[in-house]
Specification:
The complex is a heterotetramer. Chain A is mainly α. Chain A has one domain. Chain C is built from 23 helices and five strands. Helix content of chain C is about 70%, strand content about 5%. Chain C is mainly alpha-helical. Chains in contact: A-B, A-C, B-C, C-D.
Chain lengths: ~500, ~210, ~650, ~300
C-alpha cells in the first residue's frame, strides 16, 4: 500500500506527461488524489491488501501521527486537485502545460508523503529536500519575473536550511554512537542513551533546518514570497501540507527529546519561535498590501500557534494537532478562493479589490467564512484549539503568556479583518450583483473543507478525535499507547 | 596529518574572506575540493571500496575539477564584474572571519571535552567553515557569490560528515548526492534564468518582494 | 426544554426560510417563523419564571466539548423572555423598515438576524464553557454582519471593523477566563466552576475580573464601551434596537451567571463592580448629552443604563458580602427589573429613531424638529419612552431605579464605613445620572419632535407604514403597565431573586410589594390629577378665546426655524460645566472678511476612554510593532542573517549552558 | 380632620407666601408695594382669561402645565407636614418626591422647546443644567438624614430627626442652609434667577414660560410657588422641636414657613442676581454643605467626633 502511495502517482504523472491528453491528465490528477484519500481511509480502518507486495515497508510506515498528517494531506490534495481543473480552464493551459503541472504536483505530493511516512531521519531529510526541489518548479510555474525571484529565494534559503538540518543529523549520529541507526524507532527506544548535549546540538540544527521549511520566525522569510507568487492551488498545497510535513519532521525530533527527557530545552525554543512568529505576523498583517502575502503571514502565525501548542508540552498537544488540521483546511480554502479573486479582479493588491460579496457572492462568502475559520471564530475548530492552548498556559502556570498571545492574535485579527472586510464589503467595481460566477470546481472544494471544519468544530467525530488524541499522545511524554501500525 | 589538512581547509576560508576577485573564490573552491580528497584518502578506513570510489569521484572530479571549471567558464563568458563587493570592508570582514575561526577552535575544544565519537577538529573547523560561509553570503553583494559560498558551506558539512563516515557511510553518500543535486539545481536556475532576466547579478535586483 | 430548543431552531430556520422566499415575502416569512417560535419559547420560560425550578437537557457532544448541559433556570428564563420578545418585535419592525433594502442582500439580513436571535437564546441556556463560547461568538459574528449590513458606506465598514475587533478583544478575556476556570476545576461544566469561583483567593478574584472584563465589553461597561456608540448607529435600526435592548444584556447575563456561581463574592469585587458601574453610568449619560446623532446618543444612553444595572448588581453584591439579604434583594430586584425595563424603553426609542430616520434620512438632530406634527403616534410613544428612561414616575424606569435607590439607602444602616461611603457615592451618583438623563431626553425629544423643522424635509414625514409602530405600541403598553402595576414584577422576579439571595426569607419580599402597591396608588393620583387639571383648563377655556399666533418670544418674531435652539446649543451650558470629562472639538469655518456671508460651526465630542486609554495603547503597540518593520525587507542576505543569528544564539546557549 | 384642614391651608397658602416675599422686598426698597394677596388676584384673573397659543406648538405644550401642577401636588402629598405626617408614605418616597418634581420640570422644558423660540430654548437648557447640581445635592441631603435617623421614608425621617442626639443642631443648620439654596434655585429666585422681570434679566425659569397665557400661566405660577412652599415645609420639618402640643406645633411651623419666605425676600433685597457663569458655583455650595453634613453624621456615628 505504501508502495502504491509512493510509486503510483509518479507513474500517473509520467503517463500524463507522455500522453498529453486532457482526459488522461484529469484521470491522473484526480486518480492520485482519490488514491491518497482511499489509502488514508483504509489505513485508518485497518483494511489491508496483503496481496500487494510492499517492498518499502522498512523505510515507510504509517504510524499514528504519520497517518494523521497523511490524511490531512490527502484531503487537502484532493481539494487542490479538483480546484486545479478550474485553474487549468481559467488560465487556458494546453494539454502540455497541464501535464507538466500534473507531473510536478504529483512529484511534490509524493515527496511530502515521503516526509510524512519516512521511518528514518535521513530519509525524512532526503524527502524534505525533495519537496523543496519539486515545489520550486511549481512556484515558478507561471514564469514571471517576480515568481523567479520568489523561487530563487525559496530554494536558496531552504537549501541552506536543509544543509543545516543535515548537520543536525550528523551531530545526532555523533551523539548516538551506541545506537548506530537513524531509524526513529531505534532513536525513540534508546533516546535516553543519547548524549544529551549532542542531542540538544542536533536539535538546534534540525530545528533551524526543518523550521525553515515550516516557516516559523525568524526563519520564515521565504514564505510570503513563495506563497504569493505560486499559482493559487500550489500556494494552498504549500501552506496546507508542505508546512505540516516539515512540522511533522520537527515533531518527530521533538519526540526524541521528550523520550530523552530533554523537552525542557526544546519547549523553550518552540515557545520562543512560536511567539516570534506571532510577532512577525502581527507586524506584517498591519502593513501587508497583497492578499496572498497576507495569507502567507497568517500561515506564519498559525505555525507559531502550533509551535506554542507543542512547546507547552502535554496540555497543549491536542490543541496543536487540532490547529494543524484546522489550519490546513481553512488555509487551503483561503488560498484556493484567493485564486478566484485573482482571476476575477486580476490583481493581488488588497486596495484594488472591493465589493466581492456583490460581484461574486459565492466566492465572497467563502472568502469571508474561510477568514472566520482561520482567525478562530466558532464553530470553526481553530477556536477550540486556541481555547485549549490558553488552558494549557494556565495549566502550566504561564498565564501571563496568554496576555502576549492574545495581544498578537488580536492585532493579527485586526489586520486581516481590515483587509478581508475591505475586499468583501463595499460596492463592486462593475455593474450588477453576482455578475461573476466561477466554475463549480472553483468553489466546491472550499465548501467541502469548510463544512468538514464546521463538523469538527461543533461535534468532532470520534474518528477525528481519536486520530488527534493519538497523534498528540505520540508526542507527549506520557508513554504512548503502542503505536498502531496499520496498513502493512 | 589529517589535522594539518583540516586546518588548511579552514585557512582557505580566511583567504576568501579577504580577497575580492571572483576567480580567487573559484580557485579556493577547487583547492578545498582537493583538500577534501586528501582527507578522504587519509582519514577514511573500514569502508567498502564502492563508497571510497564514490567519495573520490565526488571530491576529486566534481568538487575539484568540474564545478570550478564550469563556474570559471560561465564567469568569463558572461563577463560579469569580477570584483566582489562586500558590505563590510575587507579588513573588518577578515577580523570577523578570524573571530569565527577562533570560535571553531573553541567548539573543537568543547567537543573534545563533551565526548561522543567525534574527532574534535573535524567538528570545530566544519562549524567554523559553515559559519564563515554564511557570513560571506550575508556580506557579499553578488548573486554568484551566493552560489560559491553555498558550495563552501557544503564543503564544511562534507568535512563534518567525514567524521562519521566510518560509522554511517550511507549518510555521507546521501548527503553528497543531494548536495550535488542541489548545486546543479541552483546552477541551473542561476545561469538559465536569473542571469538572463536580471542583468548584472547584483543582489539588490532581487528585492522586489517585500512588505 | 425541547420546546425551547424547537423555538430556537425555528428562529434560525426563519432566516433560512427567508433565503428561499421571494424578495417581498422574506420579511413576512421571517416574521412567521419568529412568531411561531414564541409559542414554543415563552410558555416554558414563563412557567419557570413564575414557578421556579429549572429545565435541564444534557446535549451529548463528542469530545472535547463532551456532555453539555442546557439549563433553563429562572435567571436564564428572565433573559430569554426579553430575548424572545425582542426578536419578535424586531422581526415585525423589519417588515416595514427593510422595504427600502429590497434587492440589496436582504437574505443575509434575515439569516443573520435569525442566527443572532437564536444564538442569544442559546447563550442564556448553554452551561458548558466551549458550547457557551461557541454560541457567544456566533452571536457576536451574526450581529457583526448585521452591523455591516449597509457596507457600501465607508462609515459603516469602519464601524463594523471596530465592532469586530472589540468583540474579539472582549472574547479573548472570556476565553482566558473559561480556560482558567476549566483548568482549575478540570471540567468544562459551569456547575463545576462554582468550586473555583466560590473559593476565596487570588484565582477566584482573577477569574471574576476576567469574566467581568469579557462580559463587560459586550455589555458596554466603561472603559470597554467604545464599540457601542459606533456599532449602534451603523446597524439597521431594528438591529440597533435588538442589540441595545437585548444583546448587550447578555453581557449582564454573563456577569450575573458568574455571580450566581461565586456565591458570596469577595468584598473588593463588590466595591469594584459598584464603582465601575457608577463611572459607566455617569460617563455614558454625560456623553449622551453631548451627541447630536440620535442613534449615537441612544447608544451612549445604553451605556448609562448598563451602568445603572451594574449599580444594582453592585448593591446586591454588597448586600451579599455584608450578609444583609434585604439590601441584596433590593439591589438585584433593581438590576433585573432594569434589564427588562431598559429593553422596553430603549427598544421603543430605537424603533422611534428608526421611524424618524426612515422618513427624514438623517440622524443628525440639528436637522430635525417638529416631527410631532407629522408623526403623532411615534411622538407620543417616544415621549413615554423618554420619560421612562429618565426614570420619571408613572413609567417603569422609575420602579427599577427606586429599588436601587432603596438598596443604596438601606446600605446607610449597614455597619461598615466603607459601605456607607460607597452607598452615598452611588446614591448621589444615581441622582446625578437621573438629572443628566432628564437633560439628555428633554433634548432628544424637544429637539426632534417639538418646535419647527430645522431643515426642510424633502418628503413630508408620515406614519403610513404601520408595521413600524406595532412593536413600539406593544412595548409602550408594557412600559405603562409596569409603571402603574409594579408589584406584578415581584412575582416574576421572585424566583430569580431567591437564587441570588438564598438567605432571603420570602416574607421579606412582602414589604417591597407593599411599597410598590403604594406607589401604584400615588401614580394613579398623578394621572387623576393631570386629568383633573386638564379638565379644569378645558372647562375654563370653553367659552374663552383661544387664539393661535406666532410664538411671542418677547416680541422677537422675525425668526426663522433655523434660529431655534439646536441640540448642540441645548447641551452647551452643561457641557461647559463638564468640559474636562467630555472634551469637545469645535470646528469653526468662516470667511476672513468683515461681514462673512457664510460660516459653519461643528462640534464633536471625544470619547475619554478612547482618547486616554485605547488610542495611547494602540499607539504604543503600533510603535512597538513598527520597531520590527525592517524584517521583511526583501533582502535575501538579511533573511539568512536572521537564521544565522538565531543559530548562533542557540549554539552559544547550548555550549554555554551545561 | 385637623390634617385635612392643614392640607387645605397649605394648598391655599403658596400664593400668599409669594405675596409676602414681594411685600418684604417692597418694604425693604422703601415702597409700599402691592398687597400681600396680589398673587391671588393675578391667579384668578388669569384663570378667567383666554389664551394665545403659538402655531408652532403641539399638544405637549398644552398639557405640560397640567402635568406640572399635578406632579407638584402629588409631591406635596408625599411631603411630611409637621406633626401630621404625609398622605402618601412608603420606604423611598423621597425618590418619588424628587422625581415628581423632575417630571414637572421635564414637561415644562418640553413646553418651552415646543414654542421653537431660541430664548425659551436657552432658558430650558439652563434649567436642566442647574437641576443636575441641585437634584444631586438634594439626594445627599436626604442621604445624610437617612444616615442620621436610620429611616428611609420622608415621614419617618422627619419624625425621628428631632429625636436624634446632640450633634444634630450642627447637621440641621448645614441642611437647612442647603435646602434654602435649593429653594432659591428651584423657585428661580435671586441670586440664581430674577423672577420679577421678563426680558433681559430673567434667564432661566421665567423665560421658559414666556409663551404661556391664561389658565396655563396660572397653573405654572401656582406650581412654582407650591414647589417653594413644599421645600419650605421640609425646612420647617427640620426645625420643629419634638414633643410640643399640636396647636403650638402648627403655629410654629406656619411661622417657620412664613419666615422662610420672608428671608427669601430679604435675600433678594440684599443680593443681586449672580452672573450666569457663577451660578454653578453657588449651587455647588449646596452640594458642599450637604456633603459636610453627611460627613459630620458619619463621623459622629463612627465616633470620630464625640
Amino acid at each position: 500500500m505504501i508502495t502504491l502511495v509512493i510509486i503510483l502517482p509518479l507513474v500517473f504523472g509520467v503517463i500524463s506527461f507522455a500522453a498529453k491528453s486532457r482526459i488522461v491528465n484529469r484521470v491522473a490528477l484526480l486518480g492520485s488524489a482519490a488514491l491518497f484519500v482511499v489509502v488514508a481511509l483504509m489505513v485508518w480502518l485497518g483494511i489491508d491488501w496483503r496481496w500487494l507486495p510492499d517492498w518499502l515497508l522498512v523505510y515507510f510506515r504509517f504510524d499514528c501521527i504519520g497517518l494523521f498528517f497523511f490524511a490531512v494531506m490527502a484531503i487537502v490534495f484532493a481539494g487542490v486537485s479538483v480546484y486545479s481543473l478550474s485553474y487549468f480552464s481559467e488560465h487556458n493551459l494546453n494539454a502540455r502545460q497541464e501535464s507538466v503541472y500534473i507531473l510536478e504536483i504529483l512529484a511534490f505530493v509524493v515527496a511530502m508523503a515521503g516526509v510524512i511516512l519516512a521511518t528514518n531521519l535521513a530519509l525524512l531529510w532526503v524527502f524534505v529536500e525533495a519537496t523543496t526541489l519539486t515545489s520550486a518548479l511549481l512556484i515558478y510555474f507561471e514564469k514571471k519575473k517576480s515568481s523567479l525571484e520568489a523561487t530563487w529565494k525559496y530554494i536558496y534559503i531552504c537549501s541552506i536550511g536543509i544543509a543545516l538540518a543535515f548537520v543536525g543529523i550528523i551531530t545526532l549520529s555523533i551523539g548516538s554512537e551506541r545506537i548506530g541507526s537513524l531509524f526513529f524507532s531505534d532513536l525513540y527506544l534508546h533516546a535516553s542513551e543519547i548524549n544529551p548535549v549532542w542531542l540538544k546540538l542536533s536539535f538546534a540544527f534540525l530545528f533551524v533546518g526543518l523550521g525553515t521549511k515550516v516557516g516559523v520566525a525568524p526563519i520564515h522569510a521565504w514564505l510570503p514570497d513563495a506563497h504569493s507568487e505560486a499559482p493559487s492551488p500550489v500556494s494552498a498545497l504549500l501552506s496546507g501540507t508542505l508546512l505540516n510535513s516539515a512540522f511533522l519532521g520537527i515533531l518527530r525530533v521533538q519526540v526524541i527529546l521528550v523520550r530523552a527527557d530533554q523537552q525542557a530545552f526544546s519547549n523553550i525554543i518552540l515557545l520562543l519561535t512560536g511567539f516570534l512568529s506571532l510577532l512577525v505576523s502581527a507586524v506584517y498583517m498591519l502593513r501587508v498590501k497583497n492578499y496572498k502575502r497576507m495569507l502567507a503571514y497568517s500561515s506564519v502565525e498559525n505555525m507559531g500557534i502550533m509551535f506554542i501548542g507543542v512547546g507547552l508540552g502535554q496540555p497543549g498537544l491536542f490543541a496543536a494537532m487540532l490547529q494543524t488540521l484546522a489550519h490546513s483546511f481553512s488555509k487551503t480554502s483561503l488560498f484556493l478562493t484567493s485564486g478566484n479573486i485573482l482571476h476575477s479582479y486580476g490583481t493581488k493588491k488588497i486596495e484594488d479589490v472591493q465589493g466581492l460579496l456583490k460581484r461574486d457572492p459565492v466566492t465572497g462568502w467563502i472568502w469571508m467564512a474561510s477568514f472566520l475559520a482561520i482567525i478562530g471564530i466558532p464553530p470553526f475548530p481553530i477556536f477550540i484549539s486556541k481555547f485549549f492552548i490558553i488552558r494549557a498556559f494556565w495549566v502550566n502556570g504561564q498565564g501571563w503568556l496568554a496576555v502576549l498571545f492574545f495581544l498578537f492574535i488580536v492585532v493579527v485579527t485586526f489586520g486581516m479583518g481590515k483587509a478581508v472586510f475591505r475586499m468583501a464589503f463595499g460596492d463592486s467595481g462593475i455593474e450588477g450583483a453576482g455578475s461573476v460566477r466561477p466554475a463549480s470546481s472553483a468553489y466546491l472544494p472550499q465548501i467541502v473543507l469548510l463544512a468538514a471544519l464546521v463538523i469538527v468544530g461543533i461535534n468532532m467525530p470520534n474518528l477525528v478525535n481519536e486520530m488527534l488524541s493519538k497523534a498528540a499522545a505520540f508526542v507527549s511524554s506520557v508513554p504512548a499507547p503502542v503505536a498502531r501500525v496499520a496498513g502493512r | 596529518m589529517t589535522d594539518i589538512l583540516i586546518i588548511l581547509l579552514g585557512t582557505t576560508m580566511l583567504y576568501v574572506s579577504s580577497v575580492s576577485r571572483i576567480e580567487a573564490y573559484v580557485k579556493t573552491l577547487a583547492a578545498q575540493g582537493f583538500l577534501l580528497f586528501l582527507l578522504v584518502m587519509v582519514g577514511v578506513k573500514e569502508m567498502s571500496w564502492l563508497n571510497i570510489a564514490f567519495l573520490v569521484f565526488e571530491t576529486l572530479i566534481v568538487k575539484t575539477v568540474v564545478i570550478p571549471y564550469f563556474l570559471l567558464t560561465v564567469i568569463r563568458r558572461n563577463e560579469t564584474p569580477r570584483e566582489i563587493e562586500p558590505y563590510i570592508s575587507q579588513f573588518y570582514s577578515l577580523l570577523i572571519a578570524s573571530g569565527i575561526f577562533v570560535f571553531g577552535f573553541v567548539a573543537a575544544f568543547w567537543a573534545a571535552r563533551t565526548g561522543g565519537n567525534i574527532k574534535p577538529l573535524y567538528f570545530g573547523i566544519s562549524i567554523a567553515i559553515m559559519m564563515l560561509s554564511l557570513f560571506l553570503i550575508v556580506n557579499r553583494k553578488r548573486i554568484i557569490t551566493h552560489i560559491l559560498c553555498y558550495m563552501m558551506l557544503e564543503n564544511g558539512i562534507f568535512l563534518l560528515s567525514l567524521s562519521v563516515a566510518n560509522e554511517l557511510p550511507m549518510l555521507v553518500n546521501i548527503g553528497v548526492l543531494l548536495d550535488l543535486f542541489v548545486a546543479i539545481y541552483l546552477f541551473a536556475i542561476f545561469f538559465n534564468k536569473i542571469n538572463e532576466i536580471y542583468d548584472g547579478s547584483h543582489v539588490d535586483v532581487l528585492t522586489e518582494l517585500k512588505d | 426544554m425541547t420546546d425551547f430548543l424547537t423555538g430556537v431552531v425555528l428562529l434560525f430556520a426563519g432566516g433560512l426560510g427567508a433565503i428561499v422566499a421571494g424578495e417581498r415575502a422574506k420579511a413576512w416569512v421571517f416574521f412567521g417563523f419568529t412568531a411561531a417560535a414564541q409559542f414554543f419559547i415563552l410558555p416554558p420560560v414563563f412557567e419557570i419564571l413564575l414557578n421556579g425550578g429549572q429545565l435541564v437537557l444534557p446535549a451529548y457532544f463528542s469530545q472535547p466539548i463532551g456532555t453539555a448541559y442546557l439549563r433553563l433556570d429562572s435567571l436564564a428564563a428572565l433573559f430569554a423572555s426579553v430575548t424572545s420578545v425582542g426578536a419578535l418585535l424586531t422581526s415585525i419592525f423589519s417588515i416595514g423598515y427593510m422595504k427600502i433594502y429590497r434587492g440589496q442582500g436582504l437574505s443575509s439580513y434575515f439569516v443573520f438576524l435569525g442566527m443572532m436571535s437564536a444564538s442569544m437564546l442559546l447563550v442564556e441556556v448553554a452551561q458548558n464553557a466551549i458550547l457557551f463560547l461557541i454560541v457567544w461568538e456566533l452571536m457576536s459574528i451574526s450581529s457583526f454582519f448585521l452591523v455591516a449590513f449597509e457596507n457600501g458606506n465607508e462609515e459603516v465598514r469602519k464601524a463594523g471593523l471596530y465592532y469586530f475587533i472589540a468583540m474579539q478583544a472582549g472574547v479573548a478575556f472570556l476565553i482566558a477566563a473559561f480556560a482558567l476556570a476549566s483548568a482549575a476545576s478540570g471540567s468544562l461544566d459551569f456547575s463545576s466552576f462554582a468550586t473555583v469561583l466560590s473559593k476565596h483567593g487570588s484565582v477566584s478574584i482573577l477569574l471574576f475580573v476576567l469574566f467581568f472584563v469579557g462580559f463587560g465589553t459586550k455589555a458596554g461597561v466603561f472603559p470597554m464601551h467604545t464599540w457601542l456608540p459606533r456599532a449602534h448607529p451603523a446597524a439597521p435600526t431594528g438591529v440597533s434596537a435588538l442589540m441595545s435592548g437585548v444583546m448587550i444584556k447578555t453581557g449582564i447575563y454573563g456577569i450575573l451567571r458568574i455571580l450566581l456561581l461565586s456565591g458570596i463574592p469577595d468584598y473588593r469585587l463588590a466595591y469594584g463592580v459598584l464603582i465601575i458601574s457608577v463611572i459607566t453610568a455617569v460617563f455614558g449619560v454625560m456623553n449622551a448629552v453631548a451627541q447630536n446623532d440620535i442613534k449615537k446618543l441612544l447608544a451612549y444612553s445604553s451605556i448609562e443604563n448598563i451602568g445603572i444595572i451594574g449599580m444594582g448588581i453592585g448593591v446586591g453584591m454588597l448586600g451579599l458580602v455584608y450578609n444583609n439579604p434585604l439590601i441584596a434583594m433590593l439591589g438585584f430586584v433593581g438590576a433585573l427589573l432594569h434589564v427588562v425595563n431598559h429593553f422596553t424603553f430603549k427598544s421603543v426609542l430605537f424603533y422611534g429613531s428608526g421611524v424618524v430616520y426612515s422618513q427624514t434620512h438623517t440622524r443628525n438632530m440639528d436637522n430635525l424638529g417638529g416631527l410631532g406634527k407629522y408623526l403623532p403616534l411615534t411622538s407620543l410613544m417616544f415621549l413615554i419612552a423618554s420619560l421612562a428612561i429618565t426614570g420619571l414616575p408613572v413609567f417603569n424606569g422609575f420602579i427599577s431605579e427606586l429599588a436601587i435607590y432603596l438598596g443604596l439607602a438601606r446600605s446607610f444602616s449597614a455597619g461598615s464605613i466603607a459601605m456607607i461611603v460607597a452607598a452615598l457615592f452611588g446614591f448621589s451618583a444615581l441622582a446625578f445620572i437621573g438629572s443628566m438623563a432628564l437633560l439628555c431626553f428633554t433634548k432628544v425629544y424637544g429637539i426632534c419632535f417639538l418646535g419647527l423643522p430645522r431643515t426642510k424635509y424633502h418628503v413630508e414625514p408620515n406614519e403610513r407604514e404601520r408595521t413600524l409602530l406595532v412593536p413600539m405600541a406593544m412595548l409602550t403598553v408594557v412600559i405603562v403597565g409596569i409603571g402603574l402595576l409594579p408589584w406584578i414584577t415581584i412575582d416574576l422576579l421572585k424566583n430569580v431573586i431567591m437564587e441570588f439571595v438564598p438567605s432571603l426569607n420570602p416574607d421579606q419580599l412582602v414589604p417591597l410589594t407593599g411599597i410598590f402597591r403604594t406607589i401604584s396608588g400615588a401614580l394613579a393620583a398623578v394621572i387623576g390629577l393631570v386629568g383633573l387639571f386638564y379638565g379644569l383648563r378645558t372647562f375654563l377655556l370653553r367659552r374663552r378665546k383661544v387664539a393661535e399666533y406666532k410664538t411671542w418670544d418677547c416680541g422677537y418674531q422675525v425668526g426663522s426655524s433655523r434660529l431655534q435652539y439646536t441640540s448642540s446649543s441645548f447641551a452647551q451650558p452643561f457641557l461647559h460645566l463638564v468640559a474636562e470629562l467630555v472634551p469637545q472639538k469645535i470646528h469653526v469655518e468662516k470667511q476672513p472678511v468683515l461681514f462673512p456671508e457664510q460660516a459653519s460651526l461643528e462640534s464633536h465630542t471625544q470619547d475619554l476612554s478612547e482618547r486616554f486609554i485605547f488610542r495611547p495603547m494602540i499607539g504604543i503597540l503600533n510603535k512597538f510593532l513598527n520597531l520590527f518593520s525592517w524584517i521583511q525587507s526583501g533582502r535575501l542576505q538579511l533573511y539568512i542573517m536572521y537564521g544565522l543569528v538565531f543559530l548562533v544564539v542557540l549554539l552559544i546557549w547550548i555550549l554555554g549552558v551545561k | 380632620m385637623p390634617a385635612a384642614v392643614t392640607e387645605i391651608i397649605i394648598v391655599i397658602s403658596p400664593l400668599f407666601l409669594i405675596g409676602l416675599t414681594a411685600k418684604v422686598k417692597a418694604l425693604w426698597a422703601g415702597r409700599k408695594g402691592a398687597p400681600v394677596l396680589q398673587p391671588y388676584y393675578d391667579f384668578f384673573k388669569l384663570l378667567g382669561k383666554g389664551e394665545v397659543i403659538s402655531t408652532t406648538t403641539s399638544p405637549v405644550f398644552r398639557i405640560a402645565p397640567s402635568i406640572g401642577i399635578a406632579a407638584t401636588f402629588v409631591a406635596l402629598m408625599v411631603t411630611p407636614i409637621p406633626i401630621f405626617g404625609s398622605f402618601i408614605h412608603f420606604e423611598g418616597d423621597f425618590v418619588l418626591f424628587a422625581y415628581l418634581l423632575g417630571l414637572a420640570k421635564f414637561l415644562m422644558v418640553l413646553g418651552a422647546l415646543d414654542t421653537g423660540s431660541s430664548f425659551e430654548g436657552m432658558g430650558a437648557s439652563r434649567e436642566v443644567t442647574y437641576s443636575t447640581i441641585v437634584e444631586t445635592a438634594f439626594f445627599i441631603v436626604i442621604g445624610s438624614l437617612a444616615l442620621l435617623t436610620r429611616h428611609f421614608s420622608f415621614e419617618s425621617i422627619f419624625a425621628s430627626v428631632n429625636l436624634s442626639s446632640g450633634y444634630s443642631p450642627l447637621v440641621k443648620i448645614l441642611l437647612v442652609v442647603s435646602l434654602f439654596i435649593m429653594l432659591l434655585a428651584e423657585g428661580s429666585r435671586v441670586p440664581v434667577d430674577d423672577p420679577t422681570t421678563h426680558l433681559e434679566l430673567t434667564m432661566i425659569h421665567e423665560v421658559m414660560v414666556l409663551d404661556y397665557s391664561g389658565p396655563d400661566l396660572a397653573f405654572v405660577q401656582y406650581a412654582a410657588s407650591l414647589k417653594m412652599t413644599v421645600i419650605a415645609i421640609l425646612i420647617a420639618d427640620l426645625f420643629l422641636p419634638s414633643s410640643v402640643p399640636l396647636m403650638v406645633a402648627c403655629v410654629l411651623s406656619a411661622a417657620i414657613v412664613a419666615l422662610v419666605f420672608v428671608s427669601v425676600g430679604v435675600v433678594e433685597s440684599l443680593i443681586a442676581r449672580s452672573r450666569i457663569s457663577h451660578i454653578p458655583q453657588f449651587l455647588f455650595l449646596m452640594t458642599t454643605l450637604a456633603l459636610t453634613s453627611f460627613a459630620v453624621v458619619a463621623f459622629f456615628l463612627f465616633g470620630v467626633i464625640k
